[in-house]
Amino acid sequence: MQKRKQRQNLVYTSITGTFMFVGLAIYFSLHLSSIFISFGIIIGSVIIGSIAMSLVPDMRYKENKNKNLYTGANNKKKNAPKKSMVKDIDNKKQKKLTDAEILSTDYTLLTGEQFERLCYLYFKDKGFSPQLTSTSGDHGVDLVIKDPKDGLKIAVQCKRWKGNVGNADLHKLEGGKRFYKCPGTLFITTSNYTKKAVEFSEQVRMELWNELHVQDKIGNWQKSAFKRMFYN
User: Fold this and answer.
1) Cβ atoms of 30 and 75 closer than 8 Å
2) pTM for the full predicted model
3) What is the pLDDT, as a whole number, of residue 4?
4) What gap in Å lies between CA 126 and CA 25, rounded to an integer?
5) All domains in the chain, ordered by first residue
């Protein structure tokens, strides 16, 4: 963008030149010979050009109103989501889904708590008499299920994760099973396990379900269960 001085000079030259050219053209076309008239045309053109030049607006404020006075950096904030949009996103994350909504939603899109509920529904449908533990202070156990064949109580941890589950989480479940007096343990995750976690599970005979197990068991069951429970 041109500076104000450059714009003023451009306006002055254009206006003065135009008026002077037109005035002198009329002067000579009328065959006038008065030197005062010719000087008047020149001086008048200069005055009109000066007036026009003074009317050129100062664009500095407009150009710099969004810039820091000291650094010159742009102070204009980047476009941020509107409060209403942010609120809608938060509401979707915090919304308590019904069992029908959980069953009809891809398990990879569920929150951790919603995935726990999905596992609860799965084991309930399979006859394992599941019980949800408290959301806080659960000692690393999300569900306590009972094998319908022999009545064996199993402590279950459900993790809807993307990263691999480490050794520490398995240790926590192993400790939690004693609190709930469960002989067996089952760790379920939508991801996978580290090498050390697998080695530990073998030592304590903990059953592990990874993303393939979840898809094969819970994912496939989820589609049929929704139709069976809510459309039959």
Assistant:
1) no
2) 0.59
3) 66
4) 103
5) 4-64 (no CATH), 97-230 (3.40.1350.10)
